[in-house]
Amino acid sequence: MNKIIAIANQKGGVGKTTTAINLAASLAQSGRRVLLVDMDPQGNATSGLGFPRGSITEGIYDALCRGRSVRELCQLTELPTLWVVPATADLAGAEVELVTVERREWRLADILVPVVDRYDFVIMDCPPSLGLLTLNALTAADAVVIPMQCEYFALEGLSNLMATIEQVHASLNPRLVVEGILLTMVDSRTTLTQQVEGEVRSHFDGKVYATTIPRNVRIAEAPSHGQPILLYDASSRGSQSYQALAKEFLARAEAA
Amino acid sequence: MNKIIAIANQKGGVGKTTTAINLAASLAQSGRRVLLVDMDPQGNATSGLGFPRGSITEGIYDALCRGRSVRELCQLTELPTLWVVPATADLAGAEVELVTVERREWRLADILVPVVDRYDFVIMDCPPSLGLLTLNALTAADAVVIPMQCEYFALEGLSNLMATIEQVHASLNPRLVVEGILLTMVDSRTTLTQQVEGEVRSHFDGKVYATTIPRNVRIAEAPSHGQPILLYDASSRGSQSYQALAKEFLARAEAA
Ligand SMILES: Nc1ncnc2c1ncn2[C@@H]1O[C@H](COP(=O)(O)OP(=O)(O)OP(=O)(O)O)[C@@H](O)[C@H]1O
Ligand SMILES: Nc1ncnc2c1ncn2[C@@H]1O[C@H](COP(=O)(O)OP(=O)(O)OP(=O)(O)O)[C@@H](O)[C@H]1O
Ligand SMILES: [Mg+2]
Ligand SMILES: [Mg+2]
């Protein structure tokens, strides 16, 4: 099973990085070999896994734009079967640099080819935009996991994102499907959350994971310790919900 | 007093749009003439002020890339002295289109010149990135308001943003200063919020507004009604905190 998964949503702050880190960690803990690729110039997945900003000199930018091989850039994390290709600050320049490059949407897909077989899952964290970095991830991916807050602006952006996925499927990557929509930071006491959740489940029935991630401050604390939630506080509701997500994700992904 | 203010932070979901809408509305309610420019292709400030997605055919993209004048694109909102230049979906293509244009960082500054005198404040909502759209806003601006959640990833991104503001000040726009840092979605019960707030106030002392915006679900509900919080629920803590912010903002802005 070698599956390449993009964690994408152009809406900011919906839990992309948190989902990329904690889904990857939960899959690794269940014995899968996982590679996390940080495609966001902010580098949150990199620091959230214990590689502080500025401590890394080479990352995905060097493979995308400087001809380095991904194999040389993989860094092992605290979990024995979780590796990460970090993001460095110069990734911010990649979007402009890639504009004039041949096969610019295919750069990531091309550089991942030599390493994909070594992992059960490659998981890519995307920046909050639909620019060339996210397009590269969607072109390289077999499937997309879409984290989403149950709020109005996040709901509004979903149709835009679905249209972009459809376009990438039609013109760049015919394998691309929506793996699932994950509801994050859920506070089921508010009517707003209930309304938006109801709307998403009725519109995208079957695509929305049964597992939802509750708002849980331990999840927000973990990155400052450079750890996924299952290492920072395995007994927290946050950790348990990401473990449940990993189970549901595997049941779907391995059934396909 | 004609002041151009960018609401910027490349970290996603920190309350940029919410602050742009509600600060602009609170200033308009206190009698100032305000123009809100939506520079985010997501168009959240546009729909949050009552112009549903798809209902607008022309916006800031047409002034940036198609030679239309900003004056023709201003739309009046429910508040008598608040206008908006909306964002349309084609704004997403502007970043790539602007890459090869002469004075690409100055496009917005140039097109705003004929209208600035008609307003006390021009407020620009920025997308969650440091690409050409945000750079255009920083180049056009007199000052930047930085909304920030009291969380680890938001704190991490702050030094990056400050460095970018410094670079724009040095190479593109010597007027540019940080107007203020606004702490948003504050939940003072958590130690994470207390720690991050303490760190921001000690590092950037004097730049951080005394007013903070609490997490308040009424703020998140208002955009689905296309209204700023002071029209949706003037008695809410959210509305009162943005009104207090407008007072503090005016005291600082008019003292300078
Ligand atoms: N379930 C949760 N409970 C509490 N806090 C959360 C939860 N999920 C994420 N967070 C926090 O919310 C903030 C936004 O999450 P995150 O950074 O993962 O979103 P993102 O979509 O990756 O953001 P960006 O668009 O900037 O890349 C972070 O500070 C994170 O720690
Ligand atoms: N003080 C608050 N209390 C509760 N919810 C809030 C508050 N401020 C913002 N929100 C909600 O949090 C979400 C993120 O806020 P918003 O969209 O304004 O952030 P942003 O920085 O503009 O995001 P983006 O990076 O995508 O442009 C929205 O759903 C908004 O309604
Ligand atoms: Mg992220
Ligand atoms: Mg916004």
How would you describe the overall organization of this protein?
The structure is a homodimer of 256-residue chains. Chain A has 256 residues and is of the alpha/beta class. Chain A has helices at 16-29, 44-48, 60-65, 70-73, 94-98, 107-112, 132-140, 152-171, 191-203, 217-221, 229-232, 237-253; strands at 3-7, 34-38, 75-76, 82-85, 121-125, 143-149, 177-184. Chain A is 42% helix and 14% strand. A seven-stranded mixed sheet of chain A has the order 3-4-2-5-1-6-7, with helices on both faces. In chain A, strand 3 (75-76) and strand 4 (82-85) form a beta hairpin. The model of chain A has no long low-confidence stretch (mean pLDDT 96). The interface between A and B is large, with 36 and 36 residues. The structure holds adenosine-5'-triphosphate (2 copies) and magnesium ion (2 copies). Residues 16-17, 40, 44 of chain B line the site of one magnesium ion.
Question: How would you concisely characterize the structure shown here?
Answer:
Two copies of one chain form a homodimer. The first copy, chain A, is an alpha/beta fold. Chain A has twelve helices and seven strands.
> Strand pairing plus helix content of chain A: what structural class?
alpha/beta
Figure out the total of helices of chain A.
Answer: 12
Describe the global form of chain A.
Answer: globular
Tell me the strand order in the biggest sheet of chain A.
3-4-2-5-1-6-7
